[in-house]
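Open question from group meeting: does this chain pack into something compact, or does most of it stay loose? Before anyone orders reagents, we agreed to write out a predicted structure and look at it together. Recording both the input and the output here so the notebook holds the full record.
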Amino acid sequence: MAAEVVIVGGGVSGVTTGIVLQLLGYQTRLLCQHWIGDTLNATRPDSCEPRFASQYAAASVIPHSAAITDESWHLHASLRLFEVLRSRGDAGVRTQRHYEIFEWPQLVASYAEAMPGYHVLPVNGKGEPGVPRRADGVPVYGWSFQAYFADMPRYCEFLSGLYCRLGGKLEKTGFCDVDTLMAIRASVIVNCGGAWGRTLWGDACSSRYVRGILVRAHAGDIPRNQTTGEICSYNYHPAVSVYCRSRGRPADVYFYPRSDGWILGGTRLESTELSGSEASDVRPVWQGETWRGPVVRLPLEGSEDRVELAVPEPILTLNRELIRRLTGVDVNDIRLTAAEGFRHQRQTVRLESETQHGRSVMHNYGHGGAGITLSWSCAIKVAELVCDHVGACADLRHIETQVRAGLA
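Structure tokens returned:
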């Protein structure tokens, strides 16, 4: 048996890293304040921490919201591993037609052609039957593909259960500081602490929170595109005169149906640059972009005190029209609640090893909105670093092959 590895962070990145290392024969101990298993009950107070981003995930495998070295390898490794999970049938992973739609001509993203079922819309802006469009005659451009989608309630249950079945140890703790971690007898520590992780050993790279405000439509069934019959999702970028961020920057709305309701977004409000205690165990006071347009007030999810959250009006009105035209369902006929979450967006994903106080520390955080997309590939990269540290085989292809066999 290989050496014990301590993992800090109980979100998707931390738990996935634990699963990969357990499959490779390492004994892991996961220390966390918040654990993805808790998100299965949204009324728990500790499941509503806005910085615990795993519970807010729309969770499509689309690499368009994080910068990472060797992006092509990460994308292809992620697609291979999510196909294994989809084939299992018990992981809560499916494929669905996903649309990236713009109301102005747009260059196709570099990742798109690698996606299964990739299809580009006509360049004349006329669109095609079944494509999301907010009104007749509005030009639409973009592309679609078959996206892997992790249905978060089921996916969280699968990950947390698999980690424990593989023998991983879980310790729910308060906020961990460096002194506490350095007192632990483990030669390797993996830092998957997200926004908390950057404060533990320091980080010279700039980062910030991205505040997301979401609406959940508490619907019982997953809708289908009434033209194509497919389960579908979208990111829709309207003209800036319809919906935009501060200083006139384009904004988008999105729709992802999950088994616990349909997730409607979104906002990407950026905070000022983080430093010091802004990412500690104390909930930060928001300092950054704010929405200055009309709002709709909806009940705050998980609140028993009739607290309401102000939601940018386009999140509801634009999505309502898009979903109605796409599926025939009016979300105003469904109970709606709102939630907010903070994603930790680093300039680039931190995926590296360093030595601190005689310990080897592997960093794996800063994924922003691509945490699910990059979770398995980053876990394999961490495993490569751990294997190299203990003098084991550190070939990425070999590690991935072992992990795929263990998940199948």
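Observations to bring back to the group:
The chain has two domains: 4-88+151-205+348-407, 94-148+208-344.
The longest helix spans residues 371-390.
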